[in-house]
Amino acid sequence: MRRGSGLGRDEQLDVGAAYAAHGPELYRFALRQLGDGGAAQDVVQEVFLRAWRAADSFDPQLAGLRTWLFAIARNVVVDEVRRLAVRPWQAQLTEPRADQLPARDGIDAGLVDAWVVEEALGRISPDHRTAIVQTHLRGRPHDEVAAELGIPVGTLRSRVFYGLKSLRLAMEEMGVEP
Asked: Contact 9/60 with Cβ under 8 angstroms?
């Protein structure tokens, strides 16, 4: 299955190769999140269906294929959790069998979220990025960061505000629900 993408006129997004390279990791990610092998398989199928349908929007300049696929997977898992919350009778109440449990490979939702945030931070201005990293991610006080940067506290607060708006926009452009 090939479909055109943002890769260029001569290059194509090879969904089959992407599935071979990333399908097992996406399955383990979904299984950890949902605890149901069947639902995890459905998530992986939906991820590649959405990727195939949205291949034109994939731009390797914005995000790597793996990051893009995991962002889609995160959204599909959220959709599945919401669906089950509305229709709880559809949720399977059984625990996954031992052979369905994934090998711990270090990929989890927190790590995927960190990759997505890191990718989005790289797309905003350096001033906004510094303000967000120092105040939100490192938890430093605004007055301390402003003094270190040699700017008024109000300017720093403004950079944080507009930086968060830019970060949200960058994540939306990546196809991620912030």
From this structure: no
Percent of residues, the chain, with pLDDT higher than 70: 76
Q: How many residues does the chain have?
A: 178
The CATH code that applies to domain 122-178 is: 1.10.10.10
From CA 37, how far away is CA 29, in angstroms rounded? 11
Q: Which CATH architecture has domain 1-101?
A: Orthogonal Bundle (1.10)
Segment 155-158 long-range contacts (CB within 8 Å, at least 24 positions apart): 156/131
Query: In the prediction, which pLDDT does 96 show?
Result: 46
Task: Report DSSP letters for the chain, one per residue.
Answer: -EE--TT-SS--EEHHHHHHHHHHHHHHHHHHHH--HHHHHHHHHHHHHHHHHTGGG--TTTS-HHHHHHHHHHHHHHHHHHHHHH-GGGS--SPPPGGGSPP--S--HHHHHHHHHHHHHTTS-HHHHHHHIIIIIS---HHHHHHHHTS-HHHHHHHHHHHHHHHHHHHHHTT---
| Interior/surface letters 4-32, b for 16+ CB within 10 angstroms, e for the rest | ebebeeeeebbbeebbeebbebbbbbbbb
Residue 6, pLDDT score: 41
